[in-house]
Fold these 4 entries.
Entry 1:
Amino acid sequence: MDLIRAALEEFVEESVNKIAPKTGVPFAPGPKASHFRAPLDYLRDHHAITVDEHYAVNGIYKMLSNAGVHKLESSLELARVARNLVIEWLLLLSGRVEGFSRP
């Protein structure tokens, strides 16, 4: 689960790096900002993802974080579902980043 969560984190961060030059607003999280939530908020705030998509991706991230902490409770079925969910969300984000233009 940790690897799946790390892939999601890295992809969201990379997505921000790709759209920041197009927005004209540099990504500059505060010193206490979450390393996942801050870039995800940036994507929402600059209309790369919708509020509902932000909510869904954040929920998946929370589930992955909780499953990583409680490794004994993680099942193979949950890992498979999580992997497939994250792959689909990464494909959606990839398309949004590729087609991003200033709102």
Note: Residues 2-98 form one domain.
Entry 2:
Amino acid sequence: MEIAQNQKDFNRHATDHLLNSWIQYTPEISPDSFFKSLEIGRDLSVDEITGIGLKIDDYLEKLYADLEVHAPQSDTRALFNSIREIEHHEKDKLTRVANSVYDM
């Protein structure tokens, strides 16, 4: 997955300043609460799987946008902007893949 590779690259090249940045922000819905709220069962349809994936993408995009707004330094804001753009790209990819299933 592109996000996993980007995470590895970031950890290799990030400065201590960026890694030690503190952002005073609490999301409206904690990641733990969000993921627990997802209804993931057995034998899900393509639409259900896609819907769950899109909910996750929407949540992460909003989280990254909020972190970008609350980040105190410009390099930290740029980082969250970049991550949000990657997440948006992943969301578009999921939509294309789901649509291609119906074209089969």
Note: Residues 61-104 form one domain.
Entry 3:
Amino acid sequence: MYVEYGDYDQRWLVPTDRDHAWHFEEMLGDTALTRANRLVKPWRKAADAGLIEGKVLGILNRVFKRHYIGISCGRTELVGYYKMWADTVERETGRSADRALESPFVEWPLYYCVSDG
């Protein structure tokens, strides 16, 4: 770890992980931690956009609980449900429907259950 005393600031300068994350990732390469960070990053972005709040999750449940998502469900049908969710989120919470459709909810986990049709 690099620590230095800053004459101008008159304090110890200790880098944060964010400041030097690129350095360690470059040295270590792809690690379990970097892979985990890649998986968590879109969820953090969704949380920052207010999409992982109780009301938004309740809307997701309300839209999808009426439908069985399986191999007989086509991709177009599934996208329609997500669009319905995003529109309802925008109408009821003021959160952007476009941001909702960019969230990881749209790919997780139902994408793997549907047919290509």
Note: The CA atoms of residues 25 and 87 lie 39 Å apart.
Entry 4:
Amino acid sequence: MATTAIARPRLRTAARMAVVAAALAGASPVAATPAYATVGSCTIQALSDSSSRAKCDGTPPSAYRAFIVCMGGTTRYGGWFFAGSGSWSYATCPVNQFWIDFGVQINP
């Protein structure tokens, strides 16, 4: 049993030394993540005189949402979705108001 007690501190010390050596070499002991997220091409569609939708390709954590500008200057937004999720974001004007502009908002 004394051998087991001695072996564990050596393993921990060796592991710490490996982490320090990797850090000094510029490597990270944590899993690598992409250098940056992107939003690729987006599809934006008017569904009616008062609603629109948007969907974008890309990589998370970038996100997108549809927006619509309605008569009277009201701007409505759809829900946020991660780029590349394949989900549509929908935006709709209030009742009896038509859109005057619509598009997609991107959060890089």
Note: The beta strands are 39-46, 51-58, 63-70, 75-77, 81-82, 89-92, 99-107.
